[in-house]
Amino acid sequence: MKYYFLFFSIAxxxxxxxxxxxxxxxxxxxxxxxxxxxxxxxxxxxxxxxxEIIAEGFQWSEGPLWVESQKxxxxxxxxxDTVYKWxxxxxxxxxxxxxxxTDSIPRGGEMGSNGLALDKDDHxxxxxxxxxxxxxxxxxxxxxxxxYIGLAKQYNGKKFNSPNDVIVxxxxxxxxxxxxxxxxxQSDDDPKKEIPWNGVYKVKTxxxxxxxxxxxxxxxxxxxxxxxKQLIIACSDPAKPNWYIYDVTEDSLANGRIFYSTAHxxxxxxxxxxxxxxxxxxxxxxxxPGGIWIFNxxxxxxxxxxxxxxASNVALSxxxxxxxxxxxxxxxxxxxxx
Length: 338
Description:
The protein is built from one helix and 28 strands. The protein has a single domain, classed as TolB, C-terminal domain (Neuraminidase, 6 Propeller), CATH 2.120.10. The protein has a five-stranded antiparallel beta sheet, with no helix packed on it. By secondary structure, it is mainly β.
């Protein structure tokens, strides 16, 4: 009888553990679907992959950044002027506020932070829409405070529009886009807009600011291909809903052309070309009409992560096995095959 009792006890414990594991796996709601353009996507996303909603309740989520040293995802809620933190253990938490506007003069518009990045010294870099600058948080990651050091505030004596997305090169140079979305009217006619164009800029490690491109009407997401010899820039202009690619040559960009256009593929879909990330193999995950578009570096569309709400940007975990998506009022997680 003792052996039977032991057997049933172990079986009961195993059943209980299996139930707990199953419940843990089903904690998150799911959304969306995977659309394949060919078999090549099978090596990137499994057929049974679920698109998990890991956090929700935001006004407009943006600029996701995985911070490996802290095992946390940071992302902006631009209208709320707040950076949130997500961890597997605690879910979402307020991390930093105000994140984009620190002046005492009241103003409207989407004035929070947008794109986030890490510099070569592991400082948090923020695109601050309200302050109209690129800044770093002057505090350690585990003790965040809304104290900022401006790295780039103007070009030729004129304030930037509202820095939107940012990347940092291996040498420590900062590249960022500067559309008008953070101005109070979000338009080129805003009375406080000082620069006539919407540019893409480089901030060298010595603080020098260089204009790289002034011809993209609504520059938005920005990312290097592996090797940092080519740069992809998203355009969120409905009249030119394209991703552009440029060769990087010292302090300039050359041979600009359309990488991919969604002009004939966005009818009835929410969203425009926006934020993007590129993995170490050159696979591009780009926010676009209807969800996340997945390309290889040869400009071939491999498939899409189809979403009902507009996606603004994406982040990859350090091991590139997880993709995070800021998806309007929610944040998503997609497990990748690696």
